[in-house]
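Consider the tokenized backbone below.
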């Protein structure tokens, strides 16, 4: 009977650590998407300026 609480606690710790790693990956991906969108907007602005000349 004492093994069940230890197993549940170990599973909870593993899930928490896996969640931290996943959240870190999500933040990194969001940062990269934001940077890519910024570059795209900048290029579009440059094209508009070129056309307006």
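A designed sequence for it:
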């Amino acid at each position: 009977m004492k093994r069940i609480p230890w197993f549940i606690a170990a599973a909870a710790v593993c899930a928490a650590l896996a969640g931290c790693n996943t959240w870190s990956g999500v933040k990194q991906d969001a940062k990269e998407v934001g940077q890519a969108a910024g570059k795209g907007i900048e290029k579009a602005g440059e094209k508009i300026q070129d056309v307006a000349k």
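The two ends are 79 Å apart (CA to CA).
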